[in-house]
Amino acid sequence: MLDFFEMKGVPFTREISSKHLYASACQKEAAARLEYAVKNRQFCLLTGEAGMGKSTAIRTLVHQLDPIHFHYLYICDSSLTPKLFYREVLQNFGIQPAFRSTDVKRQYQSLLLDIYENEKKMLVIIIDEAHHFSDSMLQELRFILNFKEDSMSPLSLIVVGQPSLRNLLKVKQLEAIDQRIQMRYQMSGLTEEETHAYIRHQLKMVETPHEIFSEEAIQAIYNFSQGIPRKINTLCSQSLLDAFIQGNKIVGESHIHRVINEL
């Protein structure tokens, strides 16, 4: 199929390198907010529907972190518990977690203070899938951030999840957590104009020498996907395959509708 469309690689894939990602207005703002939160050791909440580009925003952030000044740890576990969280952090730095939970928390605090005060580095902890967390895990965020009687923070904590997470944090028993959030951002889909630009950008990255998607096809993609990048990728990939099977060099509206019917 690549030879058929004269492509030098596979477009519309998650494997695209960070430096070649398409920067929409939403992605640019997410990147700016995340960078600010990290530099100022803040607690940041990043939310968005599935496929909206939260992982892309995190990839962009991690790519920018200078290892001389930062350590980062990414945890993605929908069933994360406080015990598993502390174990993950400690083991990541080669520390055997203690048996008692109070000792484990003491180990965690000592580790982060050592990294910050002695190594002169900052730890960036990114916790994904947080909309699935239990109340006990959400409550624990308060203690994860608590250093020196809450007078300082040696880390930046970024919590990522779907929009339902924002509502979860509004309940009375989690009000203290919600009040601690210093930066929050809700991601949105691409605009119609950005959807056009995104598709052309993806094709440019694989050095396609000519247009492949008709204007009508791109319009149909936007109408169905509503600018959600993951849906755009799926539609484009499947319609390319459909056009290839039929021997068509141009992906037209009919190819898009066939794929939509299959989906």
TrEMBL record:
<protein>
    <submittedName>
        <fullName>ExeA family protein</fullName>
    </submittedName>
</protein>
<dbReference type="InterPro" id="IPR049945">
    <property type="entry name" value="AAA_22"/>
</dbReference>
<feature type="domain" description="AAA+ ATPase">
    <location>
        <begin position="40"/>
        <end position="188"/>
    </location>
</feature>
<dbReference type="InterPro" id="IPR027417">
    <property type="entry name" value="P-loop_NTPase"/>
</dbReference>
<dbReference type="InterPro" id="IPR052026">
    <property type="entry name" value="ExeA_AAA_ATPase_DNA-bind"/>
</dbReference>
<dbReference type="Pfam" id="PF13401">
    <property type="entry name" value="AAA_22"/>
</dbReference>
<dbReference type="InterPro" id="IPR003593">
    <property type="entry name" value="AAA+_ATPase"/>
</dbReference>
